[in-house]
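Quick one, tokens below. Sequence please?
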């Protein structure tokens, strides 16, 4: 996948995952990697930016298999941002799909 296209949808995929449930970093990498090939080094700067933008917050939770984990949780403003981004994604997706199928968008 083209790197610019990947960067464009990565945030939406992360927000979707966190909208569904709180996750720790590696868990997010695992989930998103099923859709987009990413590494841990890709996701942590994004998580930090989303946290700085107040779209995410985190909490520490003990783990039964190792050290405590930092779980990320979407905030109320993050949910609003996610829903706006999701709506925009579908609008663009549908418009581009119609265009590629040769549908006249002026009709």
């Amino acid at each position: 996948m083209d790197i610019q296209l990947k960067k464009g949808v990565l945030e939406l995929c992360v927000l979707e995952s966190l909208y569904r449930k709180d996750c720790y970093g590696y868990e997010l990498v695992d989930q998103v990697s099923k859709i987009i090939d990413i590494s841990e080094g890709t996701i942590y700067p994004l998580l930090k930016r989303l946290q700085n933008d107040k779209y995410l917050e985190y909490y520490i939770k003990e783990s039964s298999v190792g050290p405590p984990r930092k779980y990320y949780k979407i905030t109320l403003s993050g949910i609003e941002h996610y829903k706006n981004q999701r709506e925009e994604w579908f609008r663009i997706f549908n418009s581009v799909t119609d265009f590629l199928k040769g549908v006249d968008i002026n009709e």
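The radius of gyration is 16 Å. The chain has one domain: 3-100.
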